[in-house]
Amino acid sequence: MTYTEIDGARDVPIRMWTDPATVEGQAMQQLRNITTLPWLKGLAVMPDVHFGKGATVGSVIAMKDAVCPAAVGVDIGCGMSAVKTSLTVNDLPDDLSKLRSKIEQAIPVGMGLHSEAVDPSKVYGLSSAGWDDFWDRFDDVADSVKFRRERATKQMGTLGGGNHMIELCLATDGSVWLMLHSGSRNIGKELAEHHMGVARALSHNQGLVDRDLAVFLANTPEMADYRSDLYWAQEYAARNRAIMMALFQQVVRTEFRKAKVTFGEMINCHHNYVSEETYDGMDLLVTRKGAIRAGKGDMGIIPGSMGTRSYIVRGLGNTAAFNSASHGAGRKMSRNAAKKRFTVADLAEQTKGVECRKDAGVVDEIPGAYKDIDKVMAQQADLVEVVAQIKQVICIKG
User: Fold this and answer.
1) Half-sphere exposure of residue 115: CA atoms within 13 angstroms, side-chain side
2) Residue 361 CA, distance from chain mean position
3) pLDDT value of residue 1
């Protein structure tokens, strides 16, 4: 579909790649609140849009000389990685429980962490470049989180919980893919919360309709501090996924050693982050919260849920959407609502054929709590083209 344009609070319209009538009232109010910000130059809404803290999930916010920490979210740099393997469906055993167990042994999930920090130089296929410099820069992050250094080093290469996942998938051509979703773990959350608190206290934010939309302004020490911590956390998230994927590949390589597994080119994309981009000759700070960059030729990953297909895509470079696309199917109900509506039996039925948890701890991640991924993809046909469709046979969650 092409977008629907509705009026915002100021001269900047809301461009929506979904039917506005289907968007929950709370999310629509958040979008209208965003348009009251005087620094706003554009707002694009993806088809996976839903209510979030401060700013709406599935929103792309372009501002001049300002950035809103809540429009990034607490999981700074959260995103996806995926890679095609040389394996095919014929290489997989009928019982995938052993492989799932091996992956879970290699990569801590939930609130778990490694007993010792992972040494990148000892993980096959993982580049050791830049790690010393990366950790040296931890000395420059906000003082309030510096005591978390040891925890941050041990959480590097861990999954977390919620909608984060590790999957072994089959493409429609029978090829095997590895895919995962995670972010900057606890250190990113604490950095985000620290800066949100700083922003809310600034004088220029006192008259906002929603104090969660507090911004930092260009050429201020608060903005400089935030951007430094933001970019460090975005890099933490990317490196976190790199270690997990390398550990995942190591398990697959070992379990299928006779097949001499090889891997294709890695696809990586953030979907909670800030980027400096130029549109119509204007330098803007573009915040994607629950959205991926989909510039022309950019490779991306748009997952469904733990029981539905996902898509490997290539961006079409639609500048009306600030070169963006959805980050997934998007929730259609809250976690609490999902727990009240669905049972463990429902979860087992909706994840039939998938080697995964089927217990009360992940009922809130049931496929029925998410929007129809195929409809979401149809609504953004002018934002991305599909390169591959993949469906999980193993799904690991915390």
Assistant:
1) 2
2) 21
3) 63
Output the six-digit token pair for 142. 């906000």
Task: Give CA separation, 292 vs 107, 253, 323, 391, in Å.
Answer: 25, 30, 9, 20
DSSP string, 148-190: GHHHHHHHTT---STT-EEEEEEETTSEEEEEEEE--HHHHHH
CA distance 40 to 152: 34
| Nearest alpha-carbon partner for 188 in 57, 288, 77, 289 | 77
- Which of 50, 164, 181, 327 does the annotation list as catalytic? 327
Q: Which helix (H) or strand (E) holds 392?
A: strand 384-396
Q: Token pair 């701890």 is at which residue?
A: 361
- Average pLDDT over the chain reads 97
**Distance between CA atoms of residues 345 and 357, nearest Å:** 12
Single-letter amino acid code for the residue at 40 = L
Judged on CB neighbours under 10 Å (0-12, 13-18, 19+), 372 is: middle
Assign 39 to helix, strand or coil. Answer: coil
Q: Kindly state the tokens that stand for 232.
A: 């460090």
- CA dist 58 and 326 (Å) reads 6
Question: What whole-number distance in Å separates Cα of residue 30 and Cα of residue 35?
Answer: 9
Residues in the chain: 398
How far is residue 227's CA from residue 199's CA, in Å, rounded to a whole number?
13
pTM over 0.90: yes
Helical ranges in the chain per DSSP H: 25-34, 97-106, 131-136, 149-155, 185-200, 221-255, 335-341, 344-350, 373-379
Average pLDDT over residues 13-34: 96
> Does the annotation count 327 as an active-site position?
yes
Token pair 């903005």 in the structure block, residue:
223
